[in-house]
Amino acid sequence: MGKVILVSSGKGGTGKTMFSVNLGVILAQRGKRVMLMDLDMGLRNLDIYLGMENKVVYNIMDVISGICRIKKAMIKVDGFDTLYFMAASPRRDDRDITPLHMKILCDKLRKYFDYIIIDCPAGIGDMLDVAMAPADRVVIVTEPEAASLRDADVTERYLREKGIRDICFVINKVKAELMKAGLVPDLMTILNMFNSPVAGIIQDDDNIHISTNKGIPIVCKHGTYIEKNFQEIADKIIELV
């Protein structure tokens, strides 16, 4: 049975979707069958980061409401044999989606995929409750910025209050020169903030921003320090699942 990895964040703009996409690509490159699922209703971006925005016909809410079968909403990502994604609704949707809906959907997908990666809306609330229902592990993506770190801490506490124990962090957009100058929290301070382990850090790099705008995941370029770093982070997350 496949594993469900939920990627969350305390606030928007931390790089949660970028991380979800690149984690999925790495696992697919390893021969795993991967489903990327966008739950950010009305603010979907996963399709853009994959360069697949023109391929979306049906979305996850169409599946939940019975408009289409699951396979109709599953889109194979160009250039990959084992990577698929399911888009969020392009607008805020008044059709109900509950934790039970999500659990049933993921239980069906587990039969066909080794990993289901859920890109969850930022923050806490109803959609996080929905997304966490089937999760085997939660990855919280944050950055070394006071508001982001506080919101990540709040998110971790919320998850634990809801009974989620398998949690880890990824620290994105790290600028070593700012840390050395004492202008942003350093890694030791960040590590001591959280009860859950940190699976890795991602340096701030213009190439990551360029790749997301082009719809080409950064890890598709092999042999770079960024790709190696993502591989190591993926190893730690998979070991923990």
TrEMBL record:
Keyword Protein transport: no
One cellular component term from this protein's GO annotations in UniProt: cytosol
Gene Ontology terms for molecular function: ATP binding; ATP hydrolysis activity
The entry's keywords: ATP-binding, Cell cycle, Cell division, Nucleotide-binding, Septation
Domain AAA, chain residue ranges per copy: 3-150
Record carries keyword Cell cycle: yes
Signal peptide: none
GO BP term, example: negative regulation of cell division
Free-text function comment from the UniProt entry: ATPase required for the correct placement of the division site. Cell division inhibitors MinC and MinD act in concert to form an inhibitor capable of blocking formation of the polar Z ring septums. Rapidly oscillates between the poles of the cell to destabilize FtsZ filaments that have formed before they mature into polar Z rings.
Similarity comment text for this entry: Belongs to the ParA family. MinD subfamily.
PANTHER family: SEPTUM SITE-DETERMINING PROTEIN MIND HOMOLOG, CHLOROPLASTIC, SEPTUM SITE-DETERMINING PROTEIN MIND HOMOLOG, CHLOROPLASTIC-RELATED
Stated name of the protein: Septum site-determining protein MinD
Natural source organism: Lentihominibacter hominis
